[in-house]
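Researcher: Next sequence.
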Amino acid sequence: MTFIIAEIGINHNGDIEIAKKLVELAKSAGCDAVKFQKRTVEKVYSKSVLDSPRESPWGKTTRDQKLGLEFGNKEYDEINQHCLLYGIDWFASAWDIDSQLFLRQYDLKYNKIASAMLTNIKLLETVAQEGKHTFISTGMSTMEEIKNAVDIFKKSNCSFELMHTNSSYPMKIEEANLMCIPMLKKEFGCNVGYSGHEVSAYRVSLIAASLGATSIERHITLDRTMYGSDQAASLEPPGLKRMIKDVRSVDSVLGDGEKRVWDSEIPVKKKLRG
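Model: Next structure:
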């Protein structure tokens, strides 16, 4: 069955109550897990970037905005308890080694490599050493860069699956290039999922599932008009619930590929073939 990840990311806008509501939405819709993003702001971004002007609800610089979107121990403790309460797994994509070490305090089943971090060799090695099943996004990456990442996880004997994606927000439908899903599976001999950033509700995700995507990740939001660069490429509650329903139907329709005569066919066979 396709593993469905609700990417909360930073769509909580630094508000733990919004984060909790998104966790509840993901659970009620039938998602298998929720995912967040963790950064050590001063290490991920340069001083010049952080000092640059940027109007946001938290201030007038990029630093104000980035810090306003980050959760610390208190918030992640609450997220951990809330996910335990609702019976849904959570994990996060760490954008630096300190953030990955921070996440180790929680009993998480999964790790995630963001497309932006695919070439961060030291981070990949740190994640792979944990031995947890890791989802590796491949947006804006060459086949050589993907191979280098795969080699690190294979060397550490760490379970992983690639996630085909396009790193533009929102993604143009004509740039989805979903045939990369079977191509990557054949090239690297691993499971391949799909992480979507498109505006359209969910048809791209359905096609991805029909092409054999083992996981589907979509950003979710309570309201796409909320503040934030990821909101426009996110699914609101009705779209999320319908996507999951339809992806599950794809799982059922595809079957297992084993040719058989169904019980429902036997009377027809007797009638038509004697």
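Model: The CA atoms of residues 185 and 192 lie 6 Å apart. Residues 3-273 form a domain with the TIM Barrel fold (CATH 3.20.20.70).
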